[in-house]
Amino acid sequence: MRLGVFGGSFDPVHLGHVSLVKQVREICRLDKVIVMPAAVSPFKTDIARKAASGEDRLEMCRLAFEEFPFAEVSGYEISQKEVSYTVNTLRHIRKLHPHDESFFIMGGDMLLSFEKWRNYEEILSICTLLAVSRENDAEDVKTLEKTASKLGKYGTARVVQIETFPVSSTEIREKIKNNSDISCYVPKNVVKYISEHGLYNG
Question: How far is residue 174's CA from residue 195's CA, in Å, rounded to a whole number?
Answer without folding.
Answer: 14
